[in-house]
What does this fold into?
Amino acid sequence: MITLSLRVSAAFHRYLRNTAPTNIAVAWLRSPHGSTWAIPLGFMLAIGYFHASRFCAVIVESSGPGWVNLLVILFFWNSQKFVWVAIFGMRRVPLITSRADHRESRTGPRRAARTVGNVGPHRHPASE
It folds into this structure.
Protein backbone atom coordinates (compact mmCIF):
# COMPACT_ATOMS: atom_id res chain seq x y z
CA MET A 1 0.00 0.00 0.00
CA ILE A 2 2.84 2.38 0.85
CA THR A 3 4.67 1.51 -2.35
CA LEU A 4 1.54 2.17 -4.38
CA SER A 5 0.99 5.57 -2.76
CA LEU A 6 4.65 6.52 -3.32
CA ARG A 7 4.45 5.56 -6.98
CA VAL A 8 1.22 7.47 -7.50
CA SER A 9 2.59 10.58 -5.78
CA ALA A 10 5.84 10.38 -7.79
CA ALA A 11 3.90 10.09 -11.04
CA PHE A 12 1.70 13.04 -10.06
CA HIS A 13 4.81 15.06 -9.17
CA ARG A 14 6.42 14.31 -12.55
CA TYR A 15 3.20 15.23 -14.34
CA LEU A 16 2.93 18.58 -12.55
CA ARG A 17 6.62 19.34 -12.98
CA ASN A 18 6.36 18.89 -16.74
CA THR A 19 2.95 20.46 -17.41
CA ALA A 20 2.17 23.15 -14.80
CA PRO A 21 3.07 26.58 -16.21
CA THR A 22 4.57 27.92 -12.98
CA ASN A 23 6.75 24.85 -12.54
CA ILE A 24 8.03 25.24 -16.10
CA ALA A 25 8.76 28.92 -15.41
CA VAL A 26 10.58 28.08 -12.17
CA ALA A 27 12.68 25.45 -13.96
CA TRP A 28 13.61 27.99 -16.64
CA LEU A 29 14.49 30.64 -14.03
CA ARG A 30 16.77 28.15 -12.28
CA SER A 31 18.56 27.27 -15.52
CA PRO A 32 21.73 29.13 -16.59
CA HIS A 33 19.82 30.89 -19.38
CA GLY A 34 17.10 32.20 -17.09
CA SER A 35 19.21 33.01 -14.05
CA THR A 36 19.69 36.61 -15.19
CA TRP A 37 15.91 37.04 -15.16
CA ALA A 38 15.35 35.23 -11.86
CA ILE A 39 15.34 38.33 -9.66
CA PRO A 40 13.18 40.79 -11.64
CA LEU A 41 10.78 38.25 -13.12
CA GLY A 42 10.53 36.30 -9.88
CA PHE A 43 9.54 39.34 -7.84
CA MET A 44 7.15 40.65 -10.50
CA LEU A 45 5.36 37.32 -10.79
CA ALA A 46 5.30 36.95 -7.01
CA ILE A 47 3.62 40.35 -6.65
CA GLY A 48 1.13 39.51 -9.39
CA TYR A 49 0.20 36.17 -7.84
CA PHE A 50 -0.07 37.75 -4.40
CA HIS A 51 -2.49 40.37 -5.73
CA ALA A 52 -4.51 37.65 -7.49
CA SER A 53 -4.64 35.75 -4.20
CA ARG A 54 -5.82 38.83 -2.34
CA PHE A 55 -8.42 39.58 -5.03
CA CYS A 56 -9.85 36.06 -4.73
CA ALA A 57 -9.84 36.35 -0.94
CA VAL A 58 -11.91 39.54 -1.20
CA ILE A 59 -14.36 37.71 -3.45
CA VAL A 60 -14.73 34.94 -0.86
CA GLU A 61 -15.11 37.43 2.00
CA SER A 62 -17.93 39.19 0.15
CA SER A 63 -20.03 35.99 0.14
CA GLY A 64 -18.56 34.54 -3.03
CA PRO A 65 -18.49 30.85 -3.92
CA GLY A 66 -16.45 28.59 -1.66
CA TRP A 67 -14.42 26.99 -4.42
CA VAL A 68 -12.58 30.30 -4.91
CA ASN A 69 -10.71 29.42 -1.69
CA LEU A 70 -8.79 26.86 -3.79
CA LEU A 71 -7.67 29.68 -6.08
CA VAL A 72 -6.57 31.71 -3.05
CA ILE A 73 -4.39 28.82 -1.89
CA LEU A 74 -3.03 28.16 -5.39
CA PHE A 75 -2.18 31.81 -6.09
CA PHE A 76 -0.58 32.26 -2.67
CA TRP A 77 1.50 29.09 -3.14
CA ASN A 78 2.70 30.29 -6.55
CA SER A 79 3.60 33.71 -5.15
CA GLN A 80 5.71 32.10 -2.44
CA LYS A 81 7.36 29.86 -5.03
CA PHE A 82 8.46 32.87 -7.09
CA VAL A 83 9.62 34.77 -3.99
CA TRP A 84 11.97 31.92 -3.16
CA VAL A 85 13.20 31.71 -6.75
CA ALA A 86 14.01 35.43 -6.65
CA ILE A 87 15.72 35.20 -3.25
CA PHE A 88 17.90 32.29 -4.32
CA GLY A 89 18.52 34.08 -7.62
CA MET A 90 19.96 36.99 -5.63
CA ARG A 91 22.41 34.58 -4.03
CA ARG A 92 23.54 33.15 -7.36
CA VAL A 93 24.09 36.34 -9.38
CA PRO A 94 27.33 37.48 -7.69
CA LEU A 95 28.74 33.97 -8.09
CA ILE A 96 27.92 33.91 -11.78
CA THR A 97 29.47 37.32 -12.47
CA SER A 98 32.56 36.58 -10.41
CA ARG A 99 33.10 33.29 -12.26
CA ALA A 100 32.74 35.07 -15.60
CA ASP A 101 35.18 37.78 -14.53
CA HIS A 102 37.59 35.15 -13.28
CA ARG A 103 37.31 33.21 -16.55
CA GLU A 104 37.98 36.38 -18.61
CA SER A 105 40.96 37.38 -16.49
CA ARG A 106 42.37 33.89 -16.73
CA THR A 107 41.91 33.37 -20.49
CA GLY A 108 42.16 36.97 -21.72
CA PRO A 109 45.95 37.46 -21.68
CA ARG A 110 46.60 34.02 -23.16
CA ARG A 111 44.42 34.72 -26.16
CA ALA A 112 45.99 38.13 -26.60
CA ALA A 113 49.49 36.59 -26.55
CA ARG A 114 48.48 34.05 -29.19
CA THR A 115 47.19 36.68 -31.58
CA VAL A 116 50.36 38.80 -31.54
CA GLY A 117 51.98 36.58 -34.13
CA ASN A 118 54.81 34.08 -33.85
CA VAL A 119 56.20 35.76 -30.78
CA GLY A 120 55.30 33.69 -27.75
CA PRO A 121 56.81 31.72 -24.94
CA HIS A 122 58.03 28.92 -27.23
CA ARG A 123 59.17 30.87 -30.30
CA HIS A 124 61.75 33.55 -30.52
CA PRO A 125 61.72 36.00 -33.47
CA ALA A 126 65.49 35.66 -34.01
CA SER A 127 65.28 31.89 -34.49
CA GLU A 128 63.33 32.21 -37.76
